[in-house]
Amino acid sequence: MNAPLPDVPEVRVVGLPQLTQGFDLVERLDLPMHLKVHGPLEAMTGERLAQLAEHISLTGRGGAGFPFHKKLRSVAKAAIRRGVRPVVVVNGSEGEPPCRKDTVMLNRAPHLILDGALLAAEALGARTLVVVVTRNSTEVSIRAALAERGLSDRRGQQLRARVVRTPERMVSGAAGSVIRAVNGGPALPPGRSGRSSESGVDGAPTLLSNAETFAQIAVAARVGARRYNHTGLESEPGTVMLTISGAVARPMVIEAPTGVPLPYVLQMAGAPPVPQGVLTGGYHGNWMDSVAAHEAVISKESFSAYGGALGAGAILPIGPESCPLGEALHVANWLAAETAGQCGPCYRGLPAAAGGLSDVINGGGQAALEALRAVTQAVKGRGVCHHPDGSARFFASTLSAFTDDLAAHVLHGGCGRETYGVLPLPGPEQEEAAEESIPSGEKLVIDWTLCEGHLLCTDVLPELIRTAADGFPMFSNASVPQHLQARAQRAVRRCPELALRLEQSGPPRTPEKKPARAELPPGGGRKALGSGRG
Q1: Could you say which architecture CATH assigns to the domain 329-434?
Q2: Domain 17-227 belongs to what topology?
Q3: 186-219 pLDDT, tens per residue?
Q4: Residues 6+ apart with CB under 8 A from 207
Q5: Other CB atoms within 10 Å distance of the CB of residue 287
Q6: Is the pLDDT of residue 524 over 50?
Q7: What would the CATH number be for the domain defined by 442-504?
């Protein structure tokens, strides 16, 4: 249930490979093999590199999608104005469970990423290169690649390069968290706004971009803008790296040109012929319904037009046999557990929203749904970082994409389908957090003849008990989630009128076993890796 993805899943390619060129030859392209496959790379001036990035419409591939040429020019201007050397940072901290495309590139084609980073460093006059990773496999691979090039962090070198390891967490991959970690602090959002292009590593202007972005500019520098633009859509040329997981025969990373129909890449991974919904852009992304998923093509513009989000390229279908709200609840609890603990909207709001979704699923009715919507709305735009906003987007998209299931739970107490846990989560230590909103088998009951409206219970348990317009407590009739059971008991003890109590509402529900996955359909693109590795 909610099994984690392997570091390097199977890799396939639609059409001719660009980033994955050579993957059919070797497991990992060391420097000699990399040069045989891709050839040498000539240095460029800063403006020439920026023009190349602009001509190919290159945007960041980490989710934000900021134009790369604007970043380059902004860092160059800041460095010239301040008279300091800039820093180049490769953000390979892929801490989101359904994303593996950067991990694949760092493990199998590290020199292509370093090509782009070193190209940018030379163009900007940078003397420091930092590669940030989250996993042991990526750290080992990138350290080996730096050693193969004779790069290290020793004093006296023209370019000093080092690797920084951050925890495998959602909030660790944000730009502010990465800069903070490189500077020796915790990999957490800094709690203040600021642009790394102005002041980043050690206060210097910093070019920070995603690992795939640097690989893309390395490919474009070799083949030129005209040839690069012959692949994919005119408005979004080139290829994109996608991680396909969820209800599929086996998860995989796919390199595909923009403009390829979404159903085609889903079929390659063995997704259901008519998925109930497709989560796009990862766990901070948006759901597409089956109709939209059938019409969309691989591009930011198309995904956005159909209510989705390309983001960092994570695509997760779910089958018609699953309860979509139940599948979303596992992710909701993981998102709540990923809080940096630095602000109320994240630390308290996200657990409240996850508990609210559990209420809706477990028979809380219209009151639970209204409470969930209120909490989700209250979280938006108020966090220290973007984690609350992205999580609120996931909640809102879940409620709007599965209206029939939502109505079944609100009006009839359930949709009659099981939750199989098809969406990947990090591992056993995080599965506990993903299961924590399973009903405890107890529910809160209030004796209105005794309640005087002191509202002490709302202070102890705001996730479940709220203040109504008449000044008295309000809560749904749903079972208390297991992770809030201790606080519910505390709320009962604190009631001065002894009006609140816990009663048994039935046995707690346990997750069902996941059904066997379907077999992969034959064919489906050129195969770049036959067996994959864990």
Answers
A1: Up-down Bundle (1.20)
A2: Rossmann fold (3.40.50)
A3: 888 887 777 899 999 999 999 999 999 999 999 9
A4: 71, 72, 75, 86, 87, 88, 89, 120, 124, 126, 197
A5: 27
A6: no
A7: 3.30.70.20
